Amino acid sequence: MGGRDGPHENVAQWCHRLHLKTVDNAMAESFFATLKRELMPEEGWSTKEEARAAVFEWIAVYYNRQRRHSGIAYRTPVDFETSKDHLRAA
Q: pTM of the prediction?
């Protein structure tokens, strides 16, 4: 394979296709640390499907709609995106 090999190549391509700015590594590490701390049970999940469903629900329902984020003035991402503030932040 030419270019960058490994799992990060897929993430970079995905972000580019969706016209997303790639996030800085510290932000990604913070997100996954929060996910692990707030969601993952000590004993893990029984199946991959159970894990996928739990992670999807955590992100779609809790993380984006209920959890307040310090980087956006302690609002939820949904509240931030529906305000006009995100346009000024870009």
A: 0.56
